[in-house]
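Think of the structure tokens as a kind of shorthand, similar to the way a musician reads notation: each symbol stands for something richer, in this case the local conformation of the backbone. In the example below we present two proteins back to back. Begin with the first one, reading the sequence and then the tokens, and try to describe in your own words what changes along the chain.
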Amino acid sequence: MSVPRHRALAILNLCVGDEIWNEETCRNLGVPQDWIEDMSDAIESGYNTDSETIYIANKSTNQYHGVRDLDLALRLGKVLGIDVDRATQSSISRRSIVQAIKNAIFEGE
């Protein structure tokens, strides 16, 4: 594990599924730099639905560079030994995927 278990659990606990964390936030929380480099990307807003739109300080933006907390939760789940595919198979939203990972870890699956 490239991140201590207690740190992985603390980071996972902050994930909700629909946030984008900037690189500084990731570093401050203890996300390994190689993970940040692997997962960071310029993410574009969609404007068809509100859930597709990226907001910064309550204002919509076209693009934001960072790490999706969903991707981070998926990686943390794998590092923590969860069969992420099985744990999330019935999840239908980003938030429910992250919650399923948390449940699997905290319920000892």
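Once you have a description of the first chain, move to the second and do the same.
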Amino acid sequence: MKKSSVIIVMITFVLSVVLVGIFGMKMISYNTRIYVKAINPTSVTTSANISGVQLAGSMEENSYMLVLPYFDGLIVRIDYELDPADATEDTVELTVPDPADREVVETQGLNIYAKREGSARLKYRAKDGGGAEIDVTLYFLSPEEYYSLSR
């Protein structure tokens, strides 16, 4: 090989490395996970179509309260939004951490079935491992007591 051929190959190699280094594509991981940062409750739906039901924020961060009249067969669903909306895994788990509260409510999926009057604490937790969660305390009052409070 001639000297000029070797020099041209070396210059081409060095220029290609420099050009790819400057103008090349940024490396992006294909396994990028976006974690849920916050769960924000939006609305409450009940099987008894109780009007004016709203979640009230508590003094504690990520804690809410909800007061409802107890009716036999009452089903409650608390809808929510996730922040960010494009999280990789957008499933949320609803649990009743205290065994004593399981005497007041029962959960199936995101539906809450009221068993009797009383209070129960629920925990909504994102299943992506990011640690986003909220606590909701439900108070079920007798209908007479509930409607006397709203006056």
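Compare your description with these statements about the second chain. The CA atoms of residues 94 and 109 lie 7 Å apart.
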